[in-house]
Write a structure and sequence with these properties.
Blueprint (H helix, E strand, L loop, with lengths): L28 E2 L6 E2 L6 E6 H6 L5 H4 L6 E4 L1 E4 L3 E4 L15 E5 L2 E3 L12 E8 L13 E7 L7 E9 L3 E11 L4 E12 L4 E2 L9 E15 L2 E14 L5 E4 L26 E2 L6 E18 L2 E17 L11 E21 L2 E21 L1 H4 L10 E24 L4 E25 L14 E30 L2 E12 L2 E2 L14 H4 E2 L2 E14 L3 E13 L1 E7 L2 E7 L2 E15 L2 E15 L5 E2 L7 E13 L2 E12 L2 E2 L9 E2 L2 E11 L5 E8 L7 E7 L7 E6 L4 E9 L1
Parallel strand pairs: 7-10, 14-18
Antiparallel strand pairs: 1-2, 3-9, 4-6, 7-8, 9-10, 11-12, 11-44, 12-13, 13-15, 15-16, 16-19, 17-43, 19-20, 20-21, 21-22, 22-23, 23-24, 24-25, 25-26, 26-29, 27-28, 29-30, 30-33, 31-32, 33-34, 34-35, 34-36, 36-37, 37-40, 38-39, 40-41, 41-44, 42-43
Length: 735
C-alpha cells in the first residue's frame, strides 16, 4: 500500500477491516467548502472515508462511522433507537426530539433535523466526511460542533451492481445490494436496498422475549437526467423503517441519592437485580421503537459557463416515531416513559459558485421549514393515578403534546482569495433569521389499554382527566456566523492554517415530562433558552512524512456565549444558557505504511471543557471525555489465490459523566474496546469475505445512565450498556 495517495484516514471507534486498502487509498475529495477539494488541501480538521473503506472497516450504521475521528464520539440518549454525535465535547444528550443537535447531520447536502431520523443504516455509500469545529458559514444549520456528511453512490451510465450477505451473532442476517446503469443516453438510475434482521441480545427473564433485536429495512431510488451537457437533474427517493423491541436498561439499586447501592434491596420496587449480568433483566412491560422516515430530494446543477455554476437543492422529508420503555426496569408496573414524533421538513438551497483563476467565491440562500407535532409522557398509575377508573384495567399517566413550527431563512457567502502562490485567505459570512412558534401542555390522562403496544398514545386510548400546565410562546432570533482563515502551503506536501470561526445554534424550548413546581413555572424563564454563539480559534498542520506516512495536527480554543448546557434531573431534561463556558484541546492523526504489506493508524484527542452552572459552580459538560486514543494495525498477505488481510484495532475513551451532578450514579470510568478481523478478496476483486469480532474482550461499558436514585424517586439508576462481543461473517459479490 502506498501512502502517496491523497488521503488521511483516522479511526476512533470499533472496526472490522477486511478488504484491501491498496485498492481504496486514492485521491479523496471533500465538499467541506461546498466544492470538491483534496482533503489535505482544506484548512479544516477533516476525516474523510470512501465507501470502500467504510466497508473494509466493517461499519454498517451511522452510529459506528461517526466515531471514527479523534475527538468524535457517538451519544445514545436512550439506546439504539436514538443517537447524536459529539465533536470536541460539543454534543446533545436530550432524548426529547424537538431539540436539534449542535453537530449537524447531512445526507447528500440535505440537513437531517431529527435525531430519531439519524440512526440510519449505511449502504451504497460513496464517502463520509467528518468536519470538526464550527461550520456555520456554508452549511449553516446548528453546526457549532461540526458536522457529519454522508454522500451516497450516484447513478452512472455504466452498468454495475453488488450484493452482500452477512451472518452475525444472535441470529443476525443482513442483506444489501444495489444495481444501476443507463436507461437511455440521457437517463440513468440506481436502486439500493438494505434489510437487517436479528434476535435481541438482552434476555428478558420475566416474559422470555429478548430485547434490542434488529428489524430494519431501507430503500433508495435515484434518477439522473442529463438535460444537456451543462444541465443535469438528480432525483433521490428514499424510505426506511425500524420496528424493534427496545427500552432496555440495567436496574442498579440506588436507594440513597447519588449513590449506587447494588447489593441493597430497593424498597420502592421491593426488587433487586444483582446477578451480575448486565445483559439480562426482568421487564414486565418491555418497550419498542417504531420509526418510519421518507424523503425526496431534487438537485439541479447548471454549469452556466466555464467559471459560473448554479446549484439548487430542494428537499422534503418526514419522520414518524413511537417509542416506549420500561423505565423502572423491573417486574413492577410502575413507570413507562414514552415519546412520539411526527415531523415534516422542507428545505431549499440556491447556491451560485464562481471561479476565476485561483479566486473562488460562493453565494447563496437557504430556507428551512420544520413542523413538529410530538409528545412525551408516561403510563404510571402509581404516580399519576387516583382520578377515577373509566374501564377495568386502565391506568393513569401523563400525556404532554407539544408542537413547534420553525421558519428559518439565511443568506451566505464565502471568498477564497489567493494572496500569493503559497498564501490563501478565506472569508465567509452567514446571516440567519429564525422564527419559531411553540405550544406545550401537561395532561393527566387515563390510558384505557396501558399495554406497550402500537396505538397506546392514540386519542381513542386516552381519557382526559385534567390539564396540569400549559405554555405557548414564540420567538424571533437573528444570528450571524462567520469564518476568517489563512492557509499557508508550506511546500507541495504541507499545509499550515490558522482560523477563526463563529458558529451559532438557534434558541429553543424545553418540554419536561412532569408538571412543574416552584420556583419553576410555565414561563419563558423556565421553558425557553436563547441562541448559542461559539467563537472557535484553531491552528493546524497537515503534512506527508516522506513516502511512508502522513501526520495531521490541530489545536483549538472555544469561547462560548449563552452556551446551551444540558442537564438530566430524574426523568426530566432541561436546556439552559450557561453564563460562561470554554474549551481547549488538540488532535493528532498519524498514518504509516512502513512496508508494502503493513498499515498502522493512530489517533489521539485531548479536550478540556468547563461550563459555569446557574449556581456559579463549574463542571465538565456531559459526554465530554478528556482523552480519546485509537489505533489500528493491519497486515496484508497477497497470494496467487487472492489477498488475505489480518487486522486488530482498539479505542480508548476517558472518564465521562451523563449528568451535571457528577455523582457516581452518572459516571463511566475509562475503558478500551478491541476488535479483530480476517478477510479475503479474490484475484479478480469480485468476491470479498470478512470474518470479524467486535468487542473482543467482551468489555462491559455504559453509554448512557439516568439517575433516579433515592426512595423519593425510583431508588434506581438506569444504565444502558454498549453491545457485548459480536461476531459476524459477510460475503460480497460485485458484477
Amino acid at each position: 500500500m502506498n501512502l502517496k495517495a491523497k488521503l488521511f484516514l483516522s479511526l476512533a471507534c470499533s472496526t472490522q477491516a477486511g478488504l484491501s486498502f491498496a485498492a481504496v487509498l486514492e485521491e479523496v475529495t471533500v465538499v467541506a467548502q461546498k466544492r470538491e477539494q483534496s482533503v489535505q488541501d482544506v484548512g479544516i480538521a477533516v476525516t474523510a472515508m470512501t465507501g470502500d473503506q467504510l466497508e473494509a472497516l466493517g461499519f454498517d450504521n451511522a452510529q459506528q462511522v461517526t466515531a471514527m475521528a479523534p475527538g468524535v464520539q457517538t451519544v445514545q440518549p436512550n439506546g439504539e433507537a436514538n443517537y447524536s454525535v459529539g465533536i470536541r465535547g460539543v454534543t446533545n444528550s436530550d432524548f426529547t426530539t424537538n431539540v436539534e443537535s449542535p453537530v449537524a447531520i447531512y445526507v447528500d447536502e440535505v440537513y437531517i433535523s431529527q435525531m430519531s431520523g439519524a440512526g440510519f443504516s449505511l449502504f451504497d455509500v460513496e464517502r463520509v466526511e467528518i468536519l470538526r469545529g464550527p461550520q456555520g458559514t456554508l452549511f449553516g444549520r446548528n453546526a457549532t460542533g461540526g458536522l457529519v456528511h454522508f454522500l451516497t453512490v450516484k447513478p452512472d451510465f455504466e452498468f454495475d451492481a453488488y450484493s452482500k450477505f452477512t451472518l452475525g451473532r444472535f441470529e443476525q442476517t443482513k442483506l444489501e445490494g444495489a444495481i444501476g446503469g443507463g436507461i437511455t443516453d440521457k437517463l440513468a438510475a440506481r436502486f439500493s436496498f438494505n434489510a437487517n434482521q436479528g434476535d435481541g441480545y438482552i434476555e428478558n427473564r420475566f416474559t422470555g422475549d429478548d430485547l434490542n433485536n434488529s428489524d430494519d429495512q431501507s430503500a433508495r431510488l435515484q434518477l439522473l437526467y442529463n438535460y444537456s451537457d451543462n444541465l443535469d437533474f438528480l432525483l433521490n427517493l428514499r424510505v426506511a423503517e425500524q420496528d424493534i423491541d427496545t427500552g432496555f436498561f440495567e436496574n442498579v439499586s440506588s436507594i440513597r441519592t447519588g449513590e449506587l447501592t447494588p447489593n441493597e434491596l430497593n424498597p420502592v420496587l421491593n426488587y433487586i437485580d444483582n446477578d451480575g449480568d448486565v445483559y439480562a433483566g426482568d421487564y414486565d412491560d418491555p418497550g419498542f421503537n417504531q420509526l418510519d422516515t421518507k424523503g425526496a430530494t431534487l438537485t439541479a446543477n447548471w454549469q452556466i459557463n466555464d467559471s459560473l455554476k448554479l446549484v439548487s437543492i430542494t428537499d422534503t422529508s418526514s419522520v414518524e416515531r413511537t417509542y416506549i420503555e420500561d423505565s423502572d426496569a423491573s417486574p413492577v408496573s410502575l413507570f413507562n416513559f414514552f415519546l412520539t414524533t411526527d415531523a415534516e421538513q422542507f428545505s431549499q438551497e440556491l447556491r451560485l459558485e464562481g471561479e476565476q483563476e485561483k479566486f473562488r467565491w460562493t453565494a447563496g440562500a437557504y430556507f428551512l421549514e420544520l413542523d413538529i407535532n410530538d409528545s412525551n409522557g408516561a403510563i404510571s398509575d402509581p404516580f399519576i393515578g387516583g382520578g377515577g377508573t373509566t374501564v377495568a384495567g386502565s391506568e393513569g399517566g401523563l400525556f404532554n403534546p407539544y408542537s413547534s413550527e420553525l421558519s428559518s431563512q439565511s443568506i451566505f457567502g464565502q471568498l477564497e482569495i489567493p494572496l500569493s502562490d503559497r498564501f490563501n485567505l478565506v472569508a465567509g459570512l452567514r446571516v440567519i433569521e429564525d422564527e419559531k412558534d411553540f405550544s406545550y401542555s401537561v395532561n393527566a390522562v387515563e390510558f384505557l389499554n396501558p399495554e406497550s403496544q402500537p396505538g397506546f398514545a392514540a386519542n381513542t386510548n386516552r381519557v382526559q382527566q385534567a390539564v396540569l400546565g400549559e405554555y405557548v410562546s414564540d420567538r424571533k432570533d437573528t444570528e450571524v456566523s462567520g469564518r476568517l482563515q489563512l492557509d499557508w502551503f508550506v511546500n507541495a506536501t504541507s499545509l499550515a492554517y490558522a482560523s477563526w470561526n463563529r458558529g451559532v445554534k438557534g434558541g429553543g424550548y424545553n418540554a419536561p415530562i412532569f408538571p412543574l413546581s416552584p420556583p419553576n413555572d410555565y414561563d419563558d424563564e423556565t421553558l425557553s433558552y436563547d441562541p448559542e454563539q461559539l467563537d472557535a480559534y484553531e491552528i493546524g498542520f497537515k503534512t506527508d512524512i516522506g513516502t511512508i506516512g502522513r501526520l495531521n495536527l490541530a489545536a483549538y480554543y472555544y469561547d462560548y456565549k449563552d452556551y446551551q448546557i444540558f442537564n438530566i434531573i430524574g426523568l426530566d431534561t432541561f436546556t439552559v444558557n450557561s453564563p460562561d463556558a470554554q474549551a481547549q484541546g488538540f488532535e493528532a492523526e498519524l498514518q504509516l505504511s512502513p512496508g508494502s504489506r503493513w498499515d498502522i493508524l493512530l489517533g489521539a484527542a485531548y479536550n478540556d471543557a468547563e461550563a459555569e452552572l446557574l449556581d456559579g459552580t463549574k463542571q465538565t459538560p456531559i459526554q465530554s471525555p478528556d482523552l480519546n486514543v485509537n489505533g489500528l494495525i493491519r497486515y496484508e498477505l497477497p497470494t496467487r489465490f487472492g489477498s488475505f488481510a489480518f487486522q486488530g484495532d482498539f479505542v480508548y475513551r476517558d472518564d465521562v459523566i451523563f449528568a451535571l451532578t457528577g455523582d457516581e450514579t452518572v459516571q463511566q470510568d475509562a475503558y478500551t474496546i478491541t476488535n479483530a478481523s480476517l478477510s479475503y478478496e479474490s484475484p479478480d476483486s469480485r468476491w470479498q469475505v470478512v470474518a470479524s469480532v467486535e468487542n473482543l474482550t467482551n468489555r462491559e461499558y455504559v453509554v448512557q445512565a439516568f439517575d433516579l436514585s433515592g426512595v423519593d424517586v425510583f431508588g434506581i439508576t438506569e444504565q444502558y450498556f454498549g453491545r457485548p462481543r459480536w461476531w459476524s461473517l459477510s460475503a460480497k459479490y460485485t458484477w
